[in-house]
Predict the 3D structure of the following.
Amino acid sequence: MFKRSLWLGRVQQAWSRRSVVWLSGVRRVGKTSLARMLPDAVYMNCDLPSSLRALDDPELFLDGQTPGTVVVFDEVHRLEDPSRLLKIAADEYPQLKILATGSSTLTATRKFRDSLTGRKQAVHLCPVLWEECADPFGTPLLDHRLLHGGLPEPLLAERKDSAFFSEWIDSFYARDILELFGIRNRQGFLSLFRLLLRQSGGQLDYSQLANLSQLSRPTVKAHIEAMQIAHAVYLLRPFHSGGKREIVSRPKCYAFDTGFVTFEKGWDSIRDEDRGVLWEHLVLDALRCHYADEDIFYWQDKSGREVDFVIRRERNRVDLAECKINPDKLNISAIAAFRGLYPQGDNYIVSPVAKKPYRIRRGDRVFTICTTKDLPYGL
């Protein structure tokens, strides 16, 4: 079991702002395990009939809790009216610390009649981050993390079990997509999902996806939106200032976990040429853990020059993060083109082999070489 101290701290920090915390993340990512790590918490599994009966009268249940108590409502969307329970807890019992968990964003299901705006703090639990791995240096462990993914069960397994990933995909459709969104075309939806897994890290082409999945273009867009809400894919927008030579409208689509990318591609090992795009997924997870989604982009011009990640910081400053397994293989032509348009900001080369941050000079530019945990979060 992973202790996941970073996320325990994130939940405690969220409670300093609001008494109700919404912990979301894909199924099997470890939400229940994290909730059970909270000391002396009153744990309610909302899948159980006994919990449903106990929570039928929210005031009676909450009245019975001692001020300062941590109360966990796991899989809270199983309740008939979950937003009513959480609204009562936020408004009438602010002395309690409430943790509610679910696979999707709070408003994914029609059961939530109130989005609890201003009443809750959201925390999105990612698959196990690279910085959470026990020994974050060395190719063998990196390859294991890339191949198995970051869900705790397959990550801790010695061998990759294809049955786990197949079962997860079936459960994802049945318990998240069908139940929450009412999407009944199972074959079409899963065909599109598997296409996105195989193309993860590439630019979205809705017309091509519609053709390959035999769905209409509007249906493809609607299905991808459902996948976003369920945290199964993430769309990374292009950074631009409206220049004629910049890509301005086509997002990149990243799958939520490298284990599912390698599963869908049929890989049973990681080759040298596979590591680059998979490492991008781990860097993106780290960035999303520490920055708001609206501040993370990629950049590309119409000549094909590209910067992996752009982080918007202050009004006229943007940092860039280029992902490199081997930082010695740095080509600065794309970075020079980007900095010609956006000169202010710091340059980071993010590599799994950088044990400590260090700086190098290439031409007239300075780069900091570091791993994900040493990026300047919060500055």
About this structure: The mean pLDDT is 92.
